[in-house]
Every structure is written in structure tokens, then in C-alpha cells.
Design goal:
Elements (H helix, E strand, L loop, with lengths): L16 H18 L4 E2 L6 E6 L5 H12 L3 E6 L12 H9 L4 E6 L4 H7 L5 E6 L5 H17 L8 E5 L6 H10 L6 E5 L8 H9 L3 E5 L10 E4 L10 H5 L9 H7 L5 E3 L25 H19 L10 E2 L2
Parallel strand pairs: 2-3, 2-4, 4-5, 6-7, 6-9, 7-8, 9-10
Antiparallel strand pairs: 1-11
The structure holds phosphoric acid mono(formamide)ester.
The site of phosphoric acid mono(formamide)ester has 9 residues, from helix 2.
Length: 329
Amino acid sequence: MLRFLGENILSVNQLDRESIEHIFAVAKRMEPYAKKQKRTKVLEGAILANLFFEPSTRTRVSFGTAFNLLGGLVRETTGMQSSALAKGESLYDTARVISAYADAVAMRHPDAGSVAEFATGCSVPVLNGGDGPNEHPTQALLDLLTIDRELNRFGQKIDGMHIALVGDLKYGRTVHSLSKLLCHYKDVRFTMVAPDGLQMPQTILDSVSDAGHRIVLADKMEGNLAADIVYQTRIQEERFPSQEEANKYRGGFRISQSIYNAHCKPSSVLMHPLPRDSRSDANELDNDLNANDNLAIFRQVQNGVLIRMALFALTLGVENQVEKYETTV
Ligand code: CP
């Protein structure tokens, strides 16, 4: 199992099943604090540097919220242009500087490997909030926690489930990280539904296959969405070599209530890492699904706060002191 204390969380490759289950157990204990039924000051006096060099709503705000809910303070930098990186400062130097100010770092950056590079110069735990097309480990953990909780509603488990991953599986880092985490489970059936040119990278397919899971590759949604979990993704236009190339795929794979009725199971749980692209020519997950009880996208968001609280508590070594530092609500 990962030791957690003082560790960086850079990749899902660091996690085995025992580590994942330990994170989920700590996340469950965070629930009363996230719901504000209880308060804790376990991280009082601690400072999070929340460094987001690429656009984000959920990950940035939920990292900050998670740290605040544990009693800590948050300092933020958003956008490359508002940091000294724009003046040519290296990630290593930035990390050395931030280490002097903060007790933990959450970071997003457009380049693959950049968060790991930053961590080489950083003396406090660094949590990867997404490094380009590479990884998004906290998203994968919150997705997996959501899958576990949603399947529990139907008396099912992750072991033995059927998941359909849909859309941009080439550039979508969340589906890469989630697929790798699922390699720690047993007998998962994968249907990878993507247009030609955006299918899951072979390295991930190899890992999934080596874990003993069954994989079906499909290039259309029809006939391929009758899964326990249907995980839709946005076309990651910002990662394509050109807008012209991205436009070829825009609006190709849309799930609406009528598509759900026709091709999903009545119990299929719909997930999406968000943001969903709600512009009319994209619209991969239609607003007409908002009243569908099996649309789990906003439950994913809530689970994200729990996962990030758990990771801060674990990497800063306070997971067993949260209750001790409770204050009155
Ligand atoms: N899911 C996710 O990473 O969302 P943001 O880009 O808003 O952080």
C-alpha cells in the first residue's frame, strides 16, 4: 500500500487496490465535514498553494474547498500569464519558491509530465490536478468512488461490472486514468465506443487486457450502450493539432434521453467528468437527461470533495486526528 504521508499523488500508477480502498474509507469519514454537519480545524494554520495553469472549475474549486473544510487556508494562481512561468521561470524554481510558502500543492498544467517535474523541486506533497493529456488521478478516484456508490444502489460491485467508455478516448485523460484504476478489479467488461481516430491508446488497452478484462471496441453508440456504467466524455478540442481536426468529431456522439431509452439499460448510470459541452453543435450529454435519476454527474462532483479531503488528510498525516480537532458547527 502507498505510504501516503509526505507523498506526491501524481499518477494512478502509484495506487494498488489496498491504497484505493484506504482512500475510500478515509473519504467516507470526511462526509459529515463536507456536508457541514460537523466542523474540524485539523489543518488550521496550513496553507494550500492551488496552482492552475490551465482552465478549471471543478478541480480547482474542489481542491480549495476540501482544504478549507479541513480548516486550512488556500492561496491561488490561475493562468500561466499571471505567474512567473510566463517570464521563463522553470517549474523547478517555482516549486522551490512555493515550498517556502505552502504545506501542500494542487496543480494543473497543460504539459504531460509537468506536475511530476514540478514535484522534483517541491518539499511538500503535490497533488496532480491534470497534466495535459496524461493523467488526472483525483478525477479517476472520484469516478471510481462514484461507480462504487452508484452500483451499490443496484446491489452490484465494481468486480464483474460492464462499463461503456464513450467519445474522445484518445485525448480524454480521465478515461485513461480510470481504465488503469479498474485494472485492480476483477472481470470488468469494457466497451470502448469512439469514432475512428479517437479510440483508446493501445498502451491502455494492453493494460486492461493484461488485467484479464474483456474489451469490445466499437465505432458507434447504437447497440453498445447497454452497460451498468455509461461514461461519456467531451471531445477534448484543446488537445487536437488543429480546430479543423477537432471539428470533424464535434457533435458526433450525443446522448439524450431518447438515445438513453433506446440503447441503455433502465438502470444504466450515466457519468461524465464534466464540463459537458452544451453548445448546440456539440452537446454530448443533453440537458433533457437532467431529471434522469441515473444521471450521476453532480454526485461525481460531490464525491470529488471527499476524495480530495481524504488525500490532503492522508498526505499530511492527519487522517486520524480529524475528529480530535472538531469544533462546534
Ligand atoms: N473534471 C474536471 O477536471 O473539471 P474542470 O476542468 O472544471 O476542473
